[in-house]
Amino acid sequence: MDGVINVHKPVGMTSSDVVVWLRKRLNTRKVGHTGTLDPEVNGVLPICVGRATRLAEYLTDQGKSYRAEITFGIITDTQDAEGKVLHSIRPEVKADDFLKISPQFLGSIQQIPPMYSAVRYQGKHLYDLARQGIEVERAPRTINVQRLELLSWQESEYPKAVFEVDCSKGTYIRTLCQDLGDALGCGAHMSKLVRLRSGPFRLEESWTLEQIGEAIEQGRVDFLIPFNRVLDLPKIILTPERAVAFRHGLPTSEREIFGGHLPETGQVQVFTENEFIGIGKCQDQSLYPYKVFP
After folding, report:
1. Which member of 2, 17, 38, 166 is catalytic?
2. Quick one: residue 285, left, alpha or beta (phi over 0 = left, psi -120 to 50 = alpha)?
3. pTM
4. Whether 38 is catalytic
């Protein structure tokens, strides 16, 4: 059983909880997720099974899309609704104010990881330090936000906005919400979050744990997505003879490629006919084996 499952993670479970659940149902230890979702967040969580666990690093690196609710005027220590309220103010902000400042958060921007995160500092997770009341200086990281679209605005004592965002790996939506609030001079926190997309995996095509459990009971595995549909990399096709050479660690020149275009540099997914055989690295007009699947 090899492939990826587009799981719709429910609220209340950690990403590791989902992995444990699937290991028991699928009766295999080779199960791993491709990036954590906080327990209070639901949405797309790609899970690798069998040989696909070797592809986890590629799936983790792919872009993400979220739908978030932001509450203005309330700042929490975790930057979300689960945290302790540090400060509150009744803000005089409108939807137009949000629309005016949101363009400054598009493109390549700097973001400081929150203390309540899995980022490591001197070998320790930041969230472990935060729970001890320790705050340390964190270096900003470059992230990329391709889209930030306001969907709705709710007027109240503490106004709320719902927006969608397309962003790069490593973007903290909690921090984005707080930064938006800071830009408006009133502070804010993330009150709800749903992950809509992770790479090619979308929420509308995801499977709930109940649906997966039912399929397993019926002897079905149609929830398992094969190798040739999960990677956002150029596709190269080799002849059976060159596939054997690839699997033995030998390079293939550009003129020996059967199908597809060999980039000057970078990585590609390698097939022979319809069989996925690994990840290749392009260099000096040749294809070199990088990660081979037997």
Report:
1. 38
2. left
3. 0.88
4. yes
